[in-house]
Amino acid sequence: MSINVLIVDDSLSACRVLSRHFLLLDVDKVEFCRDARSAIRTLSKYSDDYQIVVVDLHMPEVDGIEFLMRLSKMEFKGGIIIASGMESRIVEAASQLVEASKLRLLGALMKPVTTEQLRVCVERYRLMAFQGNGVRHKGLMSIDEIRRAINSNKIIPYYQAQVDIASGKIKGFEVLCRLQQGTRLQLITPDKFIDVAECNNALNSLTTKLLNNAIPEWALISQFESCKQCHLSINLTPKQLNQSGWHTRLMQYCEQNLLSPSRLTVEITENQVLDKQRQHSTISQLRMNRIGVAIDDFGTGYTNLSQLCTLPISELKLDRSLVHGIHKDPVSQTILKSMQAISGKLGIHLVAEGVEDIHDLNYLEQIEDISLQGYLICRPKPYSELVRWLKARERLVQA
After folding, report:
1. pLDDT value at residue 91
2. Is the pLDDT score of 132 beyond 70?
């Protein structure tokens, strides 16, 4: 699939930085326009030549909002990425405007933008194109393959530990989904099937199967001395939160498996805006029943500080893009310290995801009141491997 990108930003340095990010990704061509008028002229003639348009909001003469409205009238078929240094409320308002139009929003990002954030947006475009033309993108599972895996119970729970930085104790485990395709031993990771399952109304069935397999294993994991106070985290999307009954369903799982609700946490992915009354109600109902609620991948999606203040969130997980290279990145260090102060005042537990570099680990060890998750701490493991890891860890503690 050919992907050409057009960047619309009056800042030459911003255009160059964004171009460098995109060239690290699997795109074919990156061009830029320094003003919206020339971009409109270009797209009027060659709109089919560009699959992704990146737009700044604050530009002279024709600003980003007006530019987006003109693209909507042109019925531009590609994906839109908003990349702006303006305050989050303006960026959020612009993203809602795009979603209400005929345009397809891939992401609303605050500058400075990272390569990883753009990678997510590019993958969203690939998925949109895959769904739009019925052609399966290389690497993605088809919905028929996903349904066969669900019906034949090929849903394998994997577990990744979170460790408290101060004490070194295990705080909890995130349960991750793997699919076994056919009779092959190789397991498929969520990036190859989650979005396809959600777009085809199969994600609830997938989540239910995962819970059915994970909860009994979790009961056995909890018997380890180091895990008796740990929590188990499961993932739900904003779209799932918008459906009624999830808090009741999770309470039933807890009752049936003698699991205290306070030891269960729901992680909400940031791939969509949390702006529906039903979503807010579900979050409140989960917390009223002592089930934890975490915002996952914070820093790459839509959740803003005002939502952190108003929603009863119990945990905040900083995305790996903010953690990777933090030992040498003053901007990421400032963001971490700010989030540490905010989360402390709000009583929100802070988790740093994607800890994979020893230098980053050494830096994070100096930060108080934070838990770590990543390959350097513990790789995702199926039940049998996790049991071996826990036994080895307990032997080290006893030695």
Report:
1. 84
2. no
User: What is 143-398's CATH superfamily?
Assistant: EAL domain (3.20.20.450)
User: Residue type at 349?
Assistant: H
240-260 confidence digits (pLDDT tens): 888 878 888 899 988 988 889
Could you tell me if 320 and 374 are in contact, meaning their C-beta atoms sit under 8 angstroms apart? yes
* CA separation for the pair 34, 120 (Å, rounded): 25
Which residues share a beta bridge with 172? 162, 231
Q: pTM to 2 decimals?
A: 0.67
Q: Do 143-398 and 4-133 have the same topology in CATH?
A: no
Domain boundaries, the chain: 4-133, 143-398
- CA–CA separation, 116 vs 353, rounded Å? 14
Which amino acid makes up residue 141?
M
Q: In angstroms, rounded to a whole number, what is the distance separating the alpha carbons of residues 293 and 285?
A: 10
**372: which strand partners?**
163, 352
CA atoms within 13 Å, Cβ hemisphere of 182: 3
* Nearest one of 216, 245, 255 to 232, comparing CA atoms: 216
Could you please state the CATH topology (level 3) that the domain comprising 4-133 is classified under: Rossmann fold (3.40.50)
Rounded alpha-carbon distances, angstroms, from residue 54 to 80, 109, 308: 6, 10, 27
Cα–Cα distance measured from residue 58 to residue 10, given in angstroms and rounded to the nearest whole number: 8
Q: What are phi and psi of 271, to 5 degrees?
A: -80, -5
Distance CA 242, CA 252 (A): 19
Q: Are 49 and 4 in contact (CB under 8 A)?
A: yes
